[in-house]
Structure formats: structure tokens, C-alpha cells
Amino acid permease/ SLC12A domain-containing protein
Amino acid sequence: MTPLYGGKTDIDVEKIEFQEARDHAQLEMPDSIPVVVEEEIFTEKKDLKPQWSFYRRGLEQRHIQMIALAGTIGTGLFLGSGRALATGGPVGLFVGYLLTGLLVSGVVISIAEMSALVPLSGSIIRQAEYFFDPALSFAQGWNTVYNYSVGIPAEIVAAGVLIEFWVPSSVVSSAAWITVLGLLTIATNLLFIRVYGEMEFGFAILKILLIVGLIIMGLCIDLGGVSGQPRLGFHYWRDPGPFVQYLSIPGPLGRFCGFWTTFSNAAYAYSGVEGIANAAAETRNPRRNIPKAAKRIFIRVLIFYVLSVFVVTLLVPSDSEDLLNAQGKGNAAQSPFVIAASLAGIKVVPHIVNAVVLTSAWSAANSGMLTSTRTLYGLAREGHAPKFLLWTNRFGIPYVCVLCVGVFIALGYMTLSNNASVVFSWFQDLVSTAVLVQWCIICLVYLRFYYACQRQKVDRKTELPWAGPFQPYAAWISLLSFGTILLTAGYPVFIKGHWDTEEFIGAYFNLPLIFGLYFGYKWMKKTKLVGLKEMPVKYYVEIAKENPEEEERPVKGWSGLSILWS
């Protein structure tokens, strides 16, 4: 057998064992849903035997499309855009979201190209092991688990606060809602993956309908279609102006600082768009469907996000007292759409927005649970976490991982104190930084993968299942841009008179964490950077060729709606 790297071997001997294991899985778990046995690279040590894990491929193309879309549409758009408008102004908000969307596309096409070739659970965690350095796989894996261990309770708390819009905490304690929603999140993720897919599909449809309705409502208000309201046009772009003098800094520097703050807000809003690859092992025909989602999801997100924030800039002035006073409430009153509707005398909109944002928050918690548990499972597969995390239930769900991550939902009870809003905003800052770190790592791993293809003379356009466009330039631009945003995210604390310890920790805690994990593991395990010639690119090309996917079935239904998931 020919060694690949670190003593790992080619597929020659294991090919028969893999086929036998897959056939056994189909016999043991007969169902209309295909079962996948994850491909593995084994060591040459004779005492190590293959250990197979069985996943039910219950996610279809429409599920993957909608999961990716649902993961990007949530409180960041419905609520967070108001905060960005207050700090960056209408033009700052619009340009910030537009540029962030363009930069995120480089991340999406990078992770999609690798996942189309290597459709394994854990996504970037497993790919970092093979295409960069086992130490990076360990570091980013635990960074992701940490990210969602903080992010999931934050979303659960957000959902509880949204319920208080109708049921005050004086009547029912927030602890009750955190408990109920937390248990529902755990229960949902213990069921068959198809159940999760159908739920996320339904939530995404609700959010899309809400966005379309809000855009239409916004255009009607702006163009004078509401009785008693004048035509606004671009009035708020001229008065109070296109940008905001952030922190009262005079001149162009103050306006630029305000604009720059919108990038961190937009990054949080777009977080999760890379999630199309997290459940690759549970996706039918991943080598075809993941690239499809990558190509189409970006255009839809840009339309929904950019068009939505554009309408927001037309409806609400950046110096609106309602906008500034609503920050920190955490319910529908914070949404610029609701403020616009209130100004126009439309009273039912706050209830509709609050209801759909509630489903968005819980949907985000579900999506985070999926990502974190598959990441934890991927860590266990690579030997970076205890082996008992590999246990799966009869539905093919890594239930031990779900239970371990679910324990951290208890962090949500921290917000029951008098400083609940401080804790919640701190959670969000920590998640935003972790997201930027993950995007940078995806680009780094992809660039190593790209240059390995060149060194091994693998033609990406003919030999890979899918070759992303604009590479490697897209990955380089996204890496440098997000790296810059990451390093400057907490710049306000360095301005004289604006030091804030909590803001500083929220902006930069993740940097020593990721470097500590990486170099700590590297020092303990003496790992080395995987050489370009040693990366198993041809190994996975061979697997893709020997395991062709079934032919694509035509999408049934009205073409106008089928574009959402086809």
C-alpha cells in the first residue's frame, strides 16, 4: 500500500471492506432512505480496524437549499439591521451588507468545492485534517463547538425574549421558555434527519414570505402608497445624510468608522451560510447538490438581504429616536420594518414580525445544533474527541453529540439576572468573532487544497465533481478581507475615552483561543503541515469516480416556486 501522509494508506485494501460494510448497512437498516458508510483513510497499524458509522441520507436538494437559506435569514436581518443603520447610516448599511455578501461568496464556493469532493461529516474539520494540518482540524473543530455552545443558548434566549412580546415575564418566567425551547431543540435533533429537514424547510418558507411582504410594504410606504403618508423616495439619504458621524468623531474619519462597524454586524447576519456542507454525509447526492446550493443560495441571499436593507434605508432615518430607543429590547420593536410600519400607522405588523422572528431564532438554534453535533462527531472520527461520541441511534443520529452540546443550553439561564441584556450581547459578540475565524480558516484550507491540485496535476474542471469559479482569487480576497475585519472588529475600544473591557474580550477572545488550540495540539502531537504532494486529493477523486451518484430527477411543481429549491 502506498502511504499518503502520517502513515495513512490508499484505498486499495480497504475497498472491499468498505463495500461489505455498506451492503451490511443496507441489509440491517432497510428503508427508502439511502444509508451511507463514511469513507475513511486507515493507518497501516494492524491493531487498528475500520470502524464504520452509518448515516441516513435523508436530506434532499430542497432541504439543503432551504437549510442554507434559513441559516442566513434571522435576527441579523430582522433586528440587527436597525443597529447597523444607527451606526453606519443608510449608505453605510447598504454598502456594508452588499460587500459582505460578495465576500461571503468566496467562502461558500470554497467550502462547496471541497465538500463536493470530500462529502464527510464535520465538513471543514475533516478537510483541514487532510488538506492543511491535523492541528488546525483540532483547533477549528473545538472552536466551532465553542462557537455554537455559546450561540445556541443565545438563540434560545432570543426566542424566549420574543415570546415576552405577548406574555410578559411577570406572568411566565423566561426560564420556562428557555427550558421548553431547549428541550424541543434537543428532541428535534434526536429524530430522523428528514424531520429536521422538513421543519427547516417550513421555517424558511415563512421567513421568505415575511421578507417579500415587508419589501412590498416598504416600497408602498416609500412611494406614497399609504393613505396620509407623503412620498419619501431617497429623502433619508439626504437628511440626516448618507453616513453617521460615529462616536462624534468629526469629518470623513467619523463617517468611515461608522461605515466600518456595519461589517461586523453584517458578518453576524450572514453567519451560517457556509452550513450547506455541514450535513454532507446526510445529503443525497452531495457531489451534485452541495455545489447547486452554493451557486444558487448566494444569489438568493443577496436579493433578500441587499434588497431588504435597501428598503430599510428608504423608510427609517438613521437618527430616529424610535430606532435608538429600541436597541437592546430584543423584540419586534427593534426592527426597522416595525418602526416604519408604526410611523405609517400599520398596527398588525409588529405581531407578524415578532411571530416569524421567533421561528427564526428557534430555527437558528436547530441549525446550530446540527452544525455543532456533526462537528463534534467529525472531531471524534479524527481522534480529537472521545470515541463514545461516535455512537449513533437507530435513525443514524449521533445522539451522544446532541446530548453533550444540549447541556450548554443551560448557559441561557445566565440571562435571568439583572444584567441579561449585557450577557446576551456578549454572547453575540463572541459568536461574531468565531464566525470570522471560521471563514478565514475555510479560505486557508481551500487555498492549500487548490495548490495541491496544481502540484498533483489534478485538473479541477474535469476531474473534480465541481470546480468553483473565480478561484483562487475569491478565496484570497475573502481571506484578506475577513482577516482585516477580524483584527479591527474592536477598534472603538482603542479610541480615547471609549475603553470597554467586555467589548474588547468579545472582539478578540477568539484569537488567543484558536492560536492556543492550534499550537498547543501541534506541540503535544508534533504534527506537521501536510505537504501538497501528500494530500489525498487523488484518493477522493478515485472514490468519486467509482461511486457515481444517481441521475437527477426533475423538480415537480409550479416553476415559480420550484426555483426556491431546485
The CA atoms of residues 528 and 538 lie 20 Å apart. The longest helix spans residues 80-117.
